[in-house]
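User:
Note these tokens:
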Amino acid sequence: MSDNATTPATDSFLAHRNLLFTVAYEMLGSAADAEDVLQETWLRWAEVDLSTVLDERAYLVRITSRQALNRLRSLNRRKESYVGPWLPEPLLTAPDVAEDIELAESLSTALMLVLETLSPTERAVFVLREVFDVSYDEIAASVDKTPAAVRQIAHRARQHVDARRPRSTVTRSQTKAALESFQRALETGDPQNLLDILAPDVVLLADGGGIKRATARPILGSDKVARYLAGGLGKVAGRYLFVDTVVNGQPALAIHLDDEFDGIMTLRVEEGRITGLYFVRNPEKLTHVDSETQFTLR
């Protein structure tokens, strides 16, 4: 793109790049794959006769969603051989994203995991309609379905997601308060303090991708999760430091082990207690996360 930095096609693409990245990321759960989709989108966009385009934003979203849908199908096949639990790739997000309640909720690890249970087409339709308010006609053109079929898919996907969303709305301040209590409990290593903030049916997922040590399967129940955490996050030797940050639009902890960045932990809160903990240690999913990187999505 650098050779054509002043062309109308380049200007339009760059003006919508953050939106396109967010669409691709929400469909894929992977920043690396989302970046690849943007590159593919640019290559196709550069060949378009702009004089025939009535709505550049809609056209770009259509190209991006088509490419993301194709990649999502192959990505799902890769996940079948993934070692241990799979979690979406975390992204540090700018503070203003957290203030956009709807966008922050759609980016949350908890909802991204719910989206993983949808078929690729259902996920594409849900993201485009519910998150970005794309018209049914535009979505139909993106997924090669009729508008009537898209309406049915959207309704089915919405019901599926709503049945698995948190039972009550949680504000960012409530999530932050729970995170602070959780952080203090981790720092003291007191199992009782952990039990006080964990819901009885809490679930912990840790993603090491077969590269770093992590749980082979979900840990269920407050007693087991508290023991795992109090024992040093799975008995990984070293000194831990927990730093609060904002990931995927939600308060989170950046975890350092012996002064080296080790992973990101996000959480799901319901009625003041933690019902889900998501710990990403796979270094291949942490390349976009460092102390100086901020993504301004949308």
Observations:
- The radius of gyration is 20 Å.
- The CA atoms of residues 27 and 124 lie 6 Å apart.
- Strands lie at 198-207, 219-220, 240-247, 250-257, 260-270, 273-280.
